[in-house]
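Sequence only, no structure available. Ideas?
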Amino acid sequence: MSRPVRAAGCLVAGGALAAGWLGVGLPTAAALDPVNPVRVDLDGHPANSGFLVFVEGDVTVRGDENEGTLALGGDFAFQSGFNVNANPSGRFETFTAPGDDRPTALYVGGGIVFPAEPVALRVLNEGFAKVGDTTTYDADNVDGNGATGLYHIVPEGNAYDTHPRIEGTTNLQDGPSIEDADLPDLIDFAGAFDRYRELTTDLGTCDETLTPVDANGEELSRPLAPGTTAYLELTPGETNVLTVTADELVGLAGLTFRPTGPEADTPLLVNVLGTSVTGPFPNQAGISGANAPYMLWNFPEATDVTFTGGTAVEGTLYAPNADLAWQSTQNIEGNVIARTLDYGPVAGPTPREIHDFAFDTTLSCDSDSTPTPTPTGTSTPTGTPTPTPSPSPSETPTGTPTGTPSPSETPSPSETPSPSESPSPSQTPSPSPTEPSPTDQPTSSPSETPGPPDQPDEPELPDTGAGIAAVFAGMALIASGVAATLYRRRRHTF
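Reply:
I predicted one. Tokens follow.
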């Protein structure tokens, strides 16, 4: 898959048309200010309301446990024994609803889908539960003898001690609290995921800053070959960005960090490109759970993400557009942000745990949208492009974009082409790919300033069709130039 290209500014019309012919997306470059993509502000509170696992739609679990909190907007199905809030870190708390004595640890916007087996899902550490669809369950903290006990959530019409059930570890919550009439107002899933979908795209356009190398420090060719172990050396004090395709990610044997892994001031953003991701998660060496709060795996294009095995993932899985299936028997060490979640293999060994290493830093990336002067003999301003004097009110693109990316460049999905890679909006075009000069500019209509003295007949070219031919010739040259540039980009991308 080709990586997205971030434009350095507005393209001249011919360049834009050429890009369109080639099917190339050229999103406008924009700097990303420091932001925690999980806890980004939404109406004065974190978008995830402090929950470790935050899912827009349905969730299905098959064991073993989530050591943090869980919130979902859809239906919740458990098919085996499972624990929620098993070992919270205490770093981030969720809300305490009006009238409650404890924070909410399990929030279900829809209903409960109970299993056939007589198992229990437990909400530990005195966490409260909220469940929206009251037609799917009964809830109480009073047993058949009238004694107050732990709260139980059972299939509708069943007795307090029925299995299967969801059971709490506190007697402070009663049925009306679980059935909270204000529950729809407690979490804004729609607003949160609107924000998440904006951010996953923004993060996906960040320029790649890391170069995968082999054990000897030699740059690896792209795409990374299956079975490769790639080594990464992070730059301290900034957001480090690695961009891989879905095939590269699941084909990797591992990523090794040296000399150190991500930290609060040296976070890692991994952008995984592709609409579908299926395969094992690669090993990550040189890091541990201590680094996990500073790592984020972003899936900006994916609508389906399925990990079939491999090792634990250190860091947050950020896939707000995707149906996420974790079929591995290893841990997730961070937040889960997804459209839906299916956790645990349908058959075979049960998965491990979701550990409460919530994302706890900010990510940012700079804009490369400010052009720099190019040695073309024509002034190219920096900052916001402004028109430069030219003999005609409408520019005719140069035949070939000035400059050629050096072979050492490795474009990222968010790389902004420098002005030497694409025509600047304020460059003065010429009919030749070299040495543009205002005095060499052919006119494109009878109303334009006449050409040089030695070409007195050029203003009449539009009447004869020669001017139109020149325009299309220029467009063809630009198309070939863009194609050549993309070819070079793809060679460096893969």
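The longest helix spans residues 466-493.
Hope that gets you unstuck.
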